[in-house]
Amino acid sequence: MGKVIVVTSGKGGVGKTTSTAALGAALAQNGERVVVVDFDVGLRNLDLVMGAERRVVYDLVNVIQGEAKLTQALIRDKRLESLFLLPASQTRDKDNLTTEGVDRVITELKRVFDWVICDSPAGIERGATLAMRHADMAVVVTNPEVSSVRDSDRIIGLLDSKTLKAERGERMEKHLMLTRYDSARADRGDMLKVDDVLEILSIPLVGIIPESSDVLRASNMGAPVTLADARCAPAMAYFEAARRLRGEQLPITIPGDKRGIFGKIFGRKAA
Amino acid sequence: MTKVLTDARSIRIKGRSFLALVLSPDLPLDDWLVRLDDLASRSAGFFLDRPVVLDVTGLAIDKVQLKELFEQLAERNVRIMGIEGARPSMLGPGMPPAMKGGKPAADIEVKEREAACEEPESVDTAPVELPQVRAITQSLVINEPVRSGQSIIFPEGDVTIVGSVASGAEVIAGGSIHVYGALRGRAMAGTTGNSASRIFCRKLEAELVAIDGIYKMIEDMSPALVGQPVQLWLDGDSIMASTII
Ligand SMILES: Nc1ncnc2c1ncn2[C@@H]1O[C@H](COP(=O)(O)OP(=O)(O)OP(=O)(O)O)[C@@H](O)[C@H]1O
Ligand SMILES: [Mg+2]
């Protein structure tokens, strides 16, 4: 049985879709079978970031309504053969997502794929709660600013109450993905510090993704950042996050903290 | 046509006690409303979606003024579920029903026949029993952080949170509140009339604290206390605070 991950945030525009695509590609590059599912019905984006927008024929709503088979709606990535996309509908209303329909689709996907990654819409409404419903683990995407952190806190509350795991009395594994981290602004004190965010949300960190023009460049190319340029800083951070999701223990480095381990010991005196 | 009842089961009517906020206005009402607006503006959404009881005991207003007050509150999205301490003649149609002292209610089984022949009690009979502060306070322990949007409501006694209370979260306790973490949301202690209740936290960053209905917002507190381990208690009508080690 595959693992279901929901990528969620509460607040909009923090990097859920970017993270879904990047993590999906990173996991698939290792040969694992991965499907990324767009739950943002009516405002789909994942197809663009994956560069598959011209190949969408059927979508999640079609499958739920019985108008298409799952195999007809799944789009295989052109670059990675173990990576698939299940797109959202752009024209239909999100009320077309029924609980039973989503149950059926996720159950089927779990049988075939090692990882099912659900890109949640922003907000705390039906679309977001359906996207998290089946999750085994959650990646909570947060920007280092107050409103994003508070919305993430709210979402964590929902993850602990509105999911199947919560209903069964089990604990949802939650991981914090801090994105758009700008070290210059952090130094100036314009952003929340990593420690402050961790203290408020009290869930473990899975990765810190730096603010970088590489992300926009990749999405303009129609490629997950981990495929567009595997050596750029955000891609490396996503690769490490993917390894942590697989269960590896890796130390986390704060982007821009060039002092590193030696710097921490000697840096202050030199400055 | 008479309907033959074949089902012998009686209809089950349950009693249940809920924790409602009680507003007790004072005169002049205009001034009181200004203060209410001030509280609401500093703690947005405070009254939204909450049952509120209006207590007008001892307030010298007439039927027209009460109706006006009710409309003023409705305009502010404060929804009154019942009015306490009003004469029955003051509560015309379109007004919420009269309510009596919030004692705990047990399940009531009403047989249809009894229900039909019993006259409803008139409102001003039977002296209202005030709820007693229980000799043994119960306690509720929450082992995880209280997240934004969550509320912990425990009128029965003390609440202990092993973790933080997030901004946008709230803890409402009949007794004291202990937060082994940062208190960033709202904490309301002693809500069932227990003025000896206290609030303790490791780090005070609260949006609002209240003990036995007396409120204080963070901007009203000494900046020296913010971010510190603090206890809060009630001295007469004012909330006192000091750091604790
Ligand atoms: N690390 C980053 N550096 C720079 N820009 C980024 C980064 N991550 C995301 N962005 C940009 O932020 C914008 C929003 O990202 P994205 O669409 O992934 O967010 P989202 O959370 O899915 O938004 P929505 O809530 O609308 O679905 C995009 O323009 C994206 O390119
Ligand atoms: Mg998105």
Overview of the structural elements:
Chain B: Keywords: Cell cycle, Cell division, Septation. Chain B: Residues 11-77 form the Septum formation inhibitor MinC N-terminal domain. Chain B: Cell division inhibitor that blocks the formation of polar Z ring septums. Rapidly oscillates between the poles of the cell to destabilize FtsZ filaments that have formed before they mature into polar Z rings. Prevents FtsZ polymerization. Chain B: Pfam families: MinC_C, MinC_N. The complex is a heterodimer of chains A (271) and B (245). With 271 residues, chain A is of the alpha/beta class. Chain A has 14 helices and eight strands. Chain A has helices at residues 16-28, 46-49, 60-64, 70-73, 99-112, 126-133, 146-159, 164-167, 183-188, 194-201, 213-221, 225-228, 233-245, 260-270; strands at residues 3-8, 34-38, 75-76, 83-86, 115-119, 137-142, 173-181, 205-210. Chain A has an eight-stranded mixed beta sheet with strand order 3-4-2-5-1-6-7-8, with helices on both faces. Chain B is α/β, with parallel strands linked by helices and 245 residues long. Chain B folds into two domains: 21-99, Alpha-Beta Plaits (2-Layer Sandwich); 138-243, Pectate Lyase C-like, CATH 2.160.20. Chain B has a six-stranded mixed beta sheet, with no helix packed on it. In chain B, strands 8-10-12-14-15 form a five-stranded mixed beta sheet, with no helix packed on it. Chain B is globular. The N and C termini of chain B lie far apart (77 Å). Mean pLDDT of chain B is 79; it is low at 103-134. Chain A binds chain B through residues 124, 150-151, 153-154, 156-158, 160, 199-200, 202, and chain B through 144-145, 147-150, 163-164, 166-169, 182, 184. The complex binds adenosine-5'-triphosphate (ATP) and magnesium ion (MG). Residues 16-17, 40, 45, 119 of chain A line the site of magnesium ion.
